Amino acid sequence: MEPPREVKPNPIEVLIVEDSATQAEQLKYLLDEDGYSAIVASDAKRALVLARKHKPSLIMSDIVMPEMDGYTLCKMVKADSELKDIPVLLLTSLTGAEEVLKALQCGADNFVRKPFDHNRLLKLIEYMLTNRELRRSGKMQVGLEIEIGGERNRGLYVLKSRGMAHSNQIREFKLTDHGIELLDVYVGPEGVLTGSARLSQEAKNDAEQLLRQQEIERKQFGLELKRAATEAQIVVLRSEFKADESETFKIIEMEKAKTERFAQDQKKMAESRKADKFIKKPV
């Protein structure tokens, strides 16, 4: 059983644009359960009316719809001075890099492929809303540079920071079944490497790092062997020193005993000679 989701104190309004009543109800239930306040429009024209009336924090729209598709709706939202700052998330069952280009060209902030994972969708919505607040505060703006010639379903994502001339961060995006996945790129002397070139360079860097780590470990192991050998030698030297010290103390004690006996013998001899003198003296 999943734990209950956190209820947001001030629900954020999300406009769902979906011509399928079943899918619209599923999305509304998902967002309401996560603490958002979801409103539903069954077509793009109705969505524009509701967007101007409620000014939602995010618009989530299907692409394939009658009369007006999601691309056109997104273009109209981004062209409206009152609505252009609202993030637009497109939902699609279409496949291929062409759909990504269309989504980016119409000004969409992101898109998700159907069927989508609910948790990933909620995380993406939270991420988009956070980016919106950052853009509002002037700390960040997002730009896109697309290159799909070298490798299918891939491109470059450029994160630009206002007021900081050299702070651009380049990311690679990869088109997946769940939307756009942002990946790190390799920036080195050869330039910006993406896709298989990035993976190859990273593998090379990892191999070099592994060799350096192995060399460090080899040297550390050799040092440990020397330390162990030195400590063993110290133990042997201490043992030999103790043995020599004990033997030296024994010799010293023996010499002291000999000296004392010699002194006693000399004293006895002197006393004996003195006694002999008294005995031989004439009367």
Structural class: alpha/beta
Q: How confident is the prediction overall: mean pLDDT?
A: 76
CATH homologous superfamily label of the domain at 13-137? Response regulator
Tally the helices.
Answer: 6
Pattern of helices and strands: EHEHEHEHEHEEEEEEH
Oligomeric assembly: single chain
The CATH class of the domain at 13-137 is: Alpha Beta
How many individual β-strands?
11
Strand fraction equals 15-25%
Structure explained in plain terms:
Strand 8 and strand 9 form a beta hairpin. Helix 2 packs parallel to helix 3. With 283 residues, the protein is α/β, with parallel strands linked by helices. The N and C termini lie far apart (133 Å). The protein has a domain of 125 residues: Rossmann fold. Strands 2-1-3-4-5 form a 5-stranded parallel beta sheet, with helices on both faces. A 4-stranded antiparallel beta sheet has the order 6-7-8-9.
Helices and strands, with pairings:
Elements: E1 13-17, H1 21-33, E2 37-41, H2 44-54, E3 58-62, H3 70-79, E4 88-92, H4 97-105, E5 110-113, H5 118-137, E6 141-145, E7 154-160, E8 169-176, E9 179-184, E10 186-188, E11 191-193, H6 195-280
Parallel strand pairs: 1-2, 1-3, 3-4, 4-5
Antiparallel strand pairs: 6-7, 7-8, 8-9, 10-11
Question: What's this model, at a glance?
Answer:
This protein is an alpha/beta fold and 283 residues long.
Any key phrases for this structure?
four-stranded antiparallel β-sheet, Rossmann fold
